[in-house]
Write a structure and sequence with these properties.
Elements lengths: L4 E2 L12 E4 L6 E4 L8 E2 L2 H13 L6
Antiparallel strand pairs: 1-2, 2-3, 3-4
Length: about 60
Amino acid sequence: MIHWRKSSHSQGGGQGECVEVATNVPTPLIRDSKDPEGPRLTLARGELASLVGQIKAGDLDLN
């Protein structure tokens, strides 16, 4: 069974603006919580770690 976790930085208020990640599977998965049956991004563990590092560092901010 895939266990999805929401980002701790997700928007509240039931607006559904968040990303979910599953790491309890051989290859980590990322999906949009607004479309749980929609497409999923598959990343190698190293790629996921790199993406998370870039997000935390603000390297991908649009501002």
